[in-house]
């Protein structure tokens, strides 16, 4: 039996535009991923390894690195940029994953999405775990069809601004080599 309407339905389904995920929906989905890991993985080290994998799906480490180094980024060779980004990624992940404990439930209350002039969006949230509470805001931009975080502001302290100040001082005194030595040393100590 021939159904002429089937062809029309198929054309409409193919031609129908797909609604893009909002920045807030993106952040909510990543938190659901993290909550599932915390509930499912009882050991700290495997949990942290899985959280790092989730972070790789939403943190734009290149943009975070570029914004953190500011004008110093432009003076670096491509290999130096890659090396910095690699060590900085390890440091950021180390700082982030230690906030999660196996089985320790947390709740998130989402606030507003605040658009910026450059096309980025800030998604505000408040995270509660036990008696502790922190306001966590994510600065995101859209790249290649998805959202990527390039800054995290925890209780009004921007990761980019905080590290930019620290790294600028080191770069002025010790140069890029000194900064990389410090990053490598801290990352190595954390693995011991």
Question: How would you concisely characterize the structure shown here?
Answer:
The protein is of the alpha+beta class and 192 residues long. It has 7 helices and 5 strands, in the order ααααααβββββα. It starts with a helix and ends with a helix.
Keywords:
alpha+beta; disordered N terminus; Nuclear Transport Factor 2, Chain: A; 7 helices
Can you describe what's shown?
With 192 residues, the chain is of the alpha+beta class. The protein has a single domain (20-191), classed as Roll (Nuclear Transport Factor 2, Chain: A), CATH 3.10.450.710. The protein is 57% helix and 21% strand. It contains 7 helices and 5 strands, in the order ααααααβββββα. Strands 1-2-3-4-5 form a 5-stranded antiparallel sheet. Strand 4 and strand 5 form a beta hairpin. It is globular. The N and C termini lie far apart (70 Å).
Summarize the SSE layout with pairings.
Layout: H1 4-15, H2 23-40, H3 44-55, H4 61-69, H5 71-75, H6 78-97, E1 107-115, E2 121-129, E3 132-143, E4 146-154, E5 157-158, H7 159-191
Antiparallel strand pairs: 1-2, 2-3, 3-4, 4-5
Helix pairs in contact: 2-3, 4-6, 4-7, 6-7
């Amino acid at each position: 039996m021939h159904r002429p309407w089937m062809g029309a339905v198929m054309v409409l389904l193919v031609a129908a535009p797909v609604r893009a995920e909002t920045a807030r929906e993106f952040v909510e989905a990543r938190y659901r991923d993290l909550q599932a890991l915390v509930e499912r993985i009882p050991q700290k080290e495997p949990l942290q390894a899985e959280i790092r994998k989730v972070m790789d799906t939403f943190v734009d480490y290149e943009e975070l690195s570029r914004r953190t180094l500011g004008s110093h980024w432009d003076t670096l060779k491509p290999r130096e940029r890659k090396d910095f980004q690699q060590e900085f990624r390890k440091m950021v992940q180390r700082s982030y994953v230690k906030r999660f404990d196996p089985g320790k439930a947390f709740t998130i209350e989402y606030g507003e999405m605040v658009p910026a002039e450059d096309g980025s969006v800030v998604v505000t949230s408040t995270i509660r775990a036990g008696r502790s509470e922190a306001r966590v805001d994510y600065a995101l931009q859209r790249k290649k069809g998805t959202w990527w975080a390039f800054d995290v502001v925890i209780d009004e302290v921007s990761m980019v601004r905080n590290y930019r100040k620290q790294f600028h001082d080191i770069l002025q005194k010790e140069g890029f080599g000194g900064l990389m030595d410090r990053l490598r040393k801290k990352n190595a100590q954390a693995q011991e």
